[in-house]
Amino acid sequence: MSCDPAQPRPPLEVTAAAGEPLRGRLIVCVASCWNYDPTSKHQIMKRLARHNDVLWINYRGTRRPALNGQDLRGIAGTLRRFARGLEEVDSGVRQLTPLVIPGAAGAWLGAVQRRLLIAQVQRALERTRQHPAQPVQIWCFAPDVPYLAGALGEEVFVYYCVDEFAKFDGVNSEYVRRLERRTLEVADVVIASSAQLAQTRGRVRRDVHLVRHGVEFDHFARAWREDGPRPGDLPHNGRPTLGFFGLVHHWVDVDLLADLARLRPEYNVVVIGDCKVDVSALQARPNVFLLGRKPYSTLPDYCRWFDAALLPFVCGPATHEINPIKLREYLAAGLRTIATPLPEALRYRGVVRFTDPRDGLAGAERFARLCDSVVACASTDPQQARASRQRIAQTVASETWEGVVDRLTAIVCGERVSRAACAAARSLTPARPLSAPPVARTA
User: Fold this and answer.
1) Which residue ranges make up each domain of the chain?
2) Contact (CB, 8 A) for 45 and 54
3) Is the Cβ–Cβ distance between 270 and 237 less than 8 Å?
């Protein structure tokens, strides 16, 4: 890094770790709720918590809730967690659910939101800090809180971009874009989880680091490494079983799944996960089995009995930039996978079957024929089937979350050392000046 903060670094995809791991820090992680299925945020912070303290801020301010049952239940859950105050949720991880104004926009509400959130996080920081000199870092997964930069006396502020939040349902898109741009400008380090996110954020600053998601490989490899009984809620009718697990939200093509079930009544279509959108089209099909959310620990037990996995994401602006973690989990479980052509998923073209709009068939029929070809390839010999799954799993065996955290550590430690060296060269203290944010680095 140059000592001139206005000089950008070239875009970088970090593939190797360097230096010592982060140790002895208090990491303030601004993200969604801890109490849900593991996401990239959970996987990263659980590993950083082995050598650091993590203060997880359950921030729910980006999206304004609607007056429906689902959002009202979400508000009730948030208020319950707020009432519990600071709570330990995992080894080395404490969660604070602050009181915020969801979807606050405009000068007056925005100012109230800033003061409210900063005050609550500062109080939690004082209670969590091991000693007054313990260094603080902010790892922010939310796009709309640039005002936290410098507010906690942190040695480094990391903006970790994992989604195109401005395109989500229920958000003030223009307001979120404006705040995210400011977040990109004030952050010391910017991480993007997909090439598409890195490219779009690179229009604001060039030193965006591309670090793709990982997979808990050994956990999902249990599906082919170990034997186990068929879960009781899976259908026992002798038909091939096509499986999906994950949150069923606006990014999942429910109509495609329903059409697949209609076109192929000889297949079981199993959906594991909470449904946040209308799934009446799936409920109407007798060969669709909506099993609801299952504990993360049991997912390999279900994968073991899937003949193939499904990744039926909607292809559009809201999904173009995403990097689906579940694809790596499917592959680690050794599952042949049929997917819609998301840009990041296409990196696995050798082991994943994708729909192709150039083949002239209707979308659902294309998807169904790919399922046919995958099911036809399945071996009935247990040894051959296990060997096939192992070959598929090896495509992601090196993409572990441990490797991801090593790469992130190399980036963040490198930034911290560079900033300290620049400060020393200028005869300044190594601490971040709190009175002014870093100079924006633009493309």
Assistant:
1) 12-214+400-425, 217-396
2) yes
3) no
Q: Write out the H or E segment, with its range, that includes residue 208.
A: strand 208-210
Cα–Cα distance, 159 to 427 (Å, whole number): 28
Q: Is residue 234 pLDDT above 70, yes or no?
A: yes
The predicted-structure confidence for 38-79, as pLDDT tens digits, reads as follows 999 999 999 999 999 999 999 876 656 556 666 566 666 666
pLDDT at 438 over 50: no
Residue 254 and residue 285: Cα distance in Å, rounded? 12
How many helices and strands (H and E) does the chain possess?
13, 15
The architecture of the domain spanning 217-396 is 3-Layer(aba) Sandwich (3.40)
Give the amino acid at 310.
L
In the DSSP assignment, the letter for residue 149 is T
Phi, psi (degrees; rounded to nearest 5) at 349: -55, -30
Cα–Cα distance between 99 and 420 in angstroms, integer? 35
Two domains, one topology: 12-214+400-425 and 217-396: yes
Starting at the earlier edge strand, list the strands of the sheet with 288-292.
288-292, 268-272, 241-245, 308-311, 337-339, 352-354
Q: Which class is 12-214+400-425 in CATH?
A: alpha beta
Pairing of strands 156-161, 136-140: parallel
User: Measured between alpha carbons, how far is 58 from 156 in angstroms, rounded to an integer?
Assistant: 20
Q: Is 283 helix (H, G, I), strand (E, B) or coil?
A: helix
Q: Tell me what pLDDT residue 111 has.
A: 82
